[in-house]
Design goal:
Blueprint lengths: L1 H13 L19 E5 L14 E4 L9 E5 L4 E5 L14 E3 L2 E4 L4 E4 L14 E8 L2 E5 L1
Antiparallel strand pairs: 1-9, 2-3, 3-4, 4-8, 5-6, 6-7, 8-9
Amino acid sequence: MKKYLILFLVPFFFGCNKEEIQNNNPYLPNYPVNLNINMSLPQYSNLLSPANAVYVNAAGQGIRGIIIFNTGSGYVAYDAACPNQALSSCSTMYVNGIDAVCPCDDVRYSLFSGQAQEMQYPMIRYRVEQLGEVSLRVYN
């Protein structure tokens, strides 16, 4: 009996990678992201302080650019495309304090969690690796 229990539990231990971030959003395609940020540059220096965000609109990085946020205990990065809207002229979110706002429907998404109340899909999240004191890598 113990043999069967072990055989049943093994796939659960090896089947999931907690580092894996998946996009199951039917509105938004998967675009590659590989972005290096030097926070000593003026356009990124706000990231050195907690509860500050920076919008990066770099060609070929994500769907509508990347929003990077300093949570105080680390960094998170999200795509700036509204997660509960089909891509349109109004579906690029903007930063307002500790939230990202979708101009299509004025829904506010927390930059701490990427979630909005009563919305089906959260913001698409990217991995962030701190390479040095003032250097980040955002990727998927």
